[in-house]
Amino acid sequence: MGDKLWTPEFLSMSGANFLLFMSQYVMVAALPIFFMDSLGGGEVEAGLAMTFFQIGAISCRPFAGFLIDSMDKRRLMLGATGVFLFCMAGFSVFQSFSGIYGLRLVHGIVFALATTAAATLAALVLPASRKGTGIGYFALSTNLAMVVGPFLGLVLMGKLGSTALFFFCIALGLLTFVLANGRRLPEEITKPATSHRRFSLSGFLAREALVPSLLSGLVFFAYGGVLTFLPLYAKGLGLASETSLFFAVFAGVIVLTRPRVGTIFDRRGAAYTVYPGFLFFAVGMVLFSSISTLLGLLGSAVLLGIGFGALSPAFQTLAVRSVPAARSGAATATYFWALDISVGLAAVLLGLVARHFGYPLMYGAVCTAIILLGAGLSFLWLRRKG
Predict the structure, then answer these.
(1) Among 238, 316, 21, which Cα is nearest to 141's?
(2) Dihedral of the CA atoms 168, 105, 352, 36 (nearest 10)?
(3) 9, 56, 296, 383: least CB-packed within 10 angstroms?
(4) What is the spatial distance between Cα 132 and Cα 232, in angstroms, rounded to a whole number?
């Protein structure tokens, strides 16, 4: 494929990844409202819906890396996206606490498998000379899904209701299946890595990728609090109708800053994106914890978008670069496994903090402290790494 970055194979994997992540974040934003308005639930029930998803994702993610490295990746993607389509269809049928919790568990399993496969294949089709830049752009598909998904979820629930939401999920599942499997990838990319077919712990997780994965997990723990509880936080402030604007601004900032951030990472190194990223993210979280107006909400979206948009692709690139190509599946699984655990813990632990102490303390003290911890540990690791 030469040194070309925007190949059809890379675009199809990036697009499938975008849709898979969007399905998750549509649900993250919409299910709390559905639970409250239609099923009589609240913060705890909303957190449990996220927790069941994370249990599925966390339990599957290490096995996903092993399966991707030891099986035909094309067939694996075909099966995973097929189950994903049926899972999306299930939300229009099983509309109860127990039914949705069960579907979210299955959703988490197939999400972990399919997104790990998409990220691994995207990394493998990239030329070595442009892998850092390419992974940065691939991460953009994840970042955009994290903001477009909640925006669509809120709009669908607010304007059209739950029926439209669940039928949209069916369309999302179908489009994902077609996009992920419509392009035949080269056999040298999809074939198993024969040296890693044995069932072993090293086939599940990549030890070399643990540190950047765990550091990114701290970032996602803090962002998980924003993502999961923003609709309820904004509703208490009288800004519920403006919540979608937060995600629109957040997404726009990431799109505008990503090319510059990627260039800085490739030319100057990780420290020149990680340190400023933590600074913007921490300041944005403090502002977010004290908002009372639309201007404050959008201002925090700008700062959080700059910080998050710099940090997440930097750590993902560092994780993938830490291993040879044959171990890409395990490294990618390790990275997403840390993220799954972090977001799942955020949904439960931060939900309890919010219930007992309120959202300002949750965001201003707990989430900000986690960000500062991540910044300090990153400084020590990058300094030691040289």
Answers:
(1) 21
(2) 40
(3) 383
(4) 37
Triad 118, 258, 222: Cα angle to 5°: 75
The more confident residue out of 222 and 96 is 222
- Is residue 237 packed enough to be buried (19+ CB in 10 Å), middle (13-18) or exposed (0-12)? middle
Q: What is the pLDDT of residue 288?
A: 94
DSSP three-state, residue 206:
coil
- What one-character-per-residue DSSP string does 144-191 give? HHHHHHHHHHHHIIIII-HHHHHHHHHHHHHHHHHHHHSSPPPHHHHS
Residue 191 confidence (pLDDT) above 80? no
Residue 131: CB atoms within 10 Å:
18
CB neighbours of 33 closer than 8 A, spacing ≥ 6?
Answer: 154, 157, 158, 231
Residue 126 above 80 pLDDT?
no
Phi-psi label, residue 6: left if phi above 0, alpha if psi -120 to 50, beta otherwise: beta
Fold of 8-183+204-385: Growth Hormone; Chain: A; (1.20.1250)
pLDDT band with cut points at 50, 70 and 90 for residue 1: very low
Strand, helix or coil for residue 377: helix
- Of 138, 145, 183, 144, nearest to 5 by C-alpha is 138
In 3D space, the residue among 373, 273, 272 whose CA is nearest the CA of residue 313 turns out to be 273
User: What residues does each domain of the chain span?
Assistant: 8-183+204-385
SS3 5: coil
Q: Is the dihedral of CA 294, 298, 301, 303 positive or negative?
A: negative
Residue 314's pLDDT is 85
Contact 311, 281 (CB under 8 A): yes
Residue that is written with structure tokens 């599946």 in the block: 329
The first and second tokens of residue 149, run together, are 């998904």
Name the residue with tokens 């194979």: 9
The two tokens of residue 25 are 């974040």
Amino acid 204: pLDDT: 65
Size of the chain, expressed as the number of residues it contains: 386
pTM attached to this predicted model: 0.73
In the chain, which residue ranges form alpha helices assigned H by DSSP? Answer: 8-34, 43-70, 73-90, 97-125, 131-155, 162-181, 187-190, 201-204, 210-236, 243-268, 271-289, 294-321, 328-345, 351-357, 359-361, 368-385
Residue 8 CB neighbour total at 10 angstroms? 11
